[in-house]
Write a structure and sequence with these properties.
With about 550 residues, the chain is an alpha/beta fold. The chain has helices at about 10, 35-40, 40-45, 80-95, 110-115, 180-195, 235-245, 260-270, 300-315, 335, 345-355, 385-400, 400-410, 450-455, 460-475, 475-480, and strands at about 15, 50-55, 95-100, 130, 150-155, 160-165, 200, 250-255, 280, 290, 290-295, 320-325, 360-365, 485, 490-500, 500-510, 515-520, 530-535, 545, 550-555. The chain has 16 helices and 20 strands. Strand 14 (about 485) and strand 15 (about 490-500) form a beta hairpin. Helix 6 packs parallel to helix 7, helix 8 (about 260-270) runs parallel beside helix 9 and helix 11 packs parallel to helix 15. The longest helix is centred in the middle third of the chain and has 17 residues, at about 180-195. The mean pLDDT is about 95. It binds alpha-D-glucopyranose and calcium ion. Calcium ion binds near residues 25 and 28.
Length: about 550
Amino acid sequence: MADIKKTWYKEMSVYQIWCRSFCDSNGDGIGDLPGVYSKLDYIQSLGVDGIWFSPIYPTPNCDYGYDISDYKNINPEFGTLDDFKKILDEVHRRGMRVFMDLVVNHTSTEHMWFKEACKSVDNPYHDYYIWGKGKGNKPPNNWLSVFEGNAWEYVKSVDEYYLHVFAKGQPDLNMDNPKVREEVKSIMRFWLDMGVDGFREDVITFISKKEGLPNGFPLPVATGIEHYKHGPHLEEYLDEFRQVLNEYDCFCVGEGPMTSLKDAVDFCSEGPNKKLDMLISFDHMSCDCFVTDWIKTPFSLTKLKNTMDKWQQAMYGVGWNALYIENHDHARIIDRYGDLRFRVQSGKMLATMYMFQCGTPFVYQGQEIGMTNIDIKHLYEYKDVMTFNNYNLFHKILHMSEARFCKLSSQVNRENARTPVQWSAEKNAGFTTADEAWFNINPNYKEINVEAAEKDPNSLLHYYRKLIKFRKENEVVIYGDFKQYYKNSNKLFVYERNYEGKKLLVICSFSADPVKFVAPEGIDLANGKLVINTYDVLEPAKNEFVTKPYEARVYLFD
Ligand code: GLC
Ligand code: CA
């Protein structure tokens, strides 16, 4: 059996906060840090060990904080640096940790560096960004952005184009410039010195671009991606940043869209060359779509099982996995991999399915009460640059009407995960006292909200608490290996974890219909203890049973 190094970050569970929609304290309709502070009891009650804040820095909000105009301050819409320090102290006092989002592939066009960079080609900040001369009246190459048409934007004052892999307001930093890397390290130190416990590094695998910026293979979006999804100096730069992290007792999880498993293992392998402690993979989030969330396909359980199995096997004893099924970039999971007719039951099953694998689980705000997607009927009600870009694309290429687009969007759009957290059945779901929140509140808040979930002993919320607690108290969940059974079943996800003589058997049904489960050979359920169950189990343990809709059971063998 592989030798696993025990570390605090492997034992924790993390709660992700997308502040704008978490809790509004001052009635302006926008979630803020005092709002977070007021909910620390709640967050701690989940049993989590840390909070990851999606960006809370000053920003003009062209990508809701992922466009930063000042890396060493707090978004005034959210509060002040003192509000943040107050949270940091209080979270630490409660024995939990705080992680920041480090967004250094790009800044905002409102950042002082960029404003300077546009003044002249001789400005010391000019080389902080990636510039190119136009070809006639065409941009330097054929790259398309992920969010907004062309990846190049012309700036008259310097007669050059700047590169933006994401939105126009997100110019890419020139990481090849050593001064830029020094700035990144200084940002890291600023927060680490303040006491922050680590980072989630945004699209960190995109930071190195191929020399000469050659044309890319033409695609409807993100043309050129092959030249930066794992650029020539990526490893070098990650190593350089790692040096800083190594000076502190902190951890970092990198976000790596389209990063191969092989690269992920290389980056995360324990030892002197470890670059990242874990990597946010996208593979398991593509089991009901093709290439992008927006091209829907029927959900495939076998695809989900295969991908998860691969990451589990490859990382075990070598690196470490980040486990998640929701964040601010994807539609709500029950709508995708679960079943709205069995919202709570399928939510419980999905929670069990991912949290009991080997890795550090992340829970995204609202996931723990089973928030769902929202039906928005008009384009103007949306807020996100990606939505508008996708509308333009679908309209242009497929002649899709606004109504049809909105229908699709209600299934796949990441904005589904950005509606305000539903705290109670009161006005505006208890999120704000303003007349209106900054973004639509899901009308199902009367039924789905924290207050109601607290009162219901069978709620998803209480179930999440139970899973988080069980994981914390049982090393087999944290450090056990992973072995799958019935790989070809398109109804059941069954796996086993083993650690120091203990065994855990996790049985998850992805079906509303009854499915016959037979214990794998060599396992006698009568010898196990049923430690987690989503329905009452009255009959004594038999080696086979028929599942209830989306049932999950976990047996522990000592
Ligand atoms: C990451 C973030 C996403 C953001 C993008 C550009 O994927 O998670 O929200 O839009 O990077 O920064
Ligand atoms: Ca507010």
